[in-house]
Amino acid sequence: MDFALWRQAFDTFAEARSQSRVLRHRIMRPVDDDHYVTIDLDFLTTDAARTFLQFLQTTVWSNPQNAPALAGTPNTRIFQPVDEDR
Question: Residue 16 half-sphere exposure, CB side, CA atoms within 13 Å?
């Protein structure tokens, strides 16, 4: 995966994330694998997360021009917090 190319595509959808009410995002990469990226998006509701996931599946990931650095099928999960230390 070309991280610079991936990041450029990710940044292209900043407005879509904002309109979908993504509260914040975290991008993480394993220290031992330059070809892997994890994105953690925070939403107010589970429904908002599901709606954005549908947008990713139907608009972003289904079009190679929108996801030029995508290799394989993204693995997605929607989590709910059960404990957090601040």
Answer: 15
User: Maximum Cα–Cα distance for the chain, whole Å?
Assistant: 39
Cα separation, 23 vs 6, in Å, equals 21
Name every residue whose Cβ is closer than 8 Å to that of residue 47 and which is 6 or more positions away in sequence: none
78 touches 39 (CB < 8 A): no
Report how far residue 86's alpha carbon sits from residue 84's, in angstroms, rounded to the nearest whole number: 6
For residues 12 and 34, give the distance between their C-alpha atoms in angstroms, rounded to a whole number.
21
Please name the residue ranges forming H helices in 1-86: 3-12, 14-19, 46-55
Confidence of residue 63 (pLDDT cuts 50, 70, 90): confident
How far is it, in rounded angstroms, from Cα 56 to Cα 77? 13
Residue 56 CB: number of other CB atoms within 10 A? 19
Say what the pTM is: 0.83
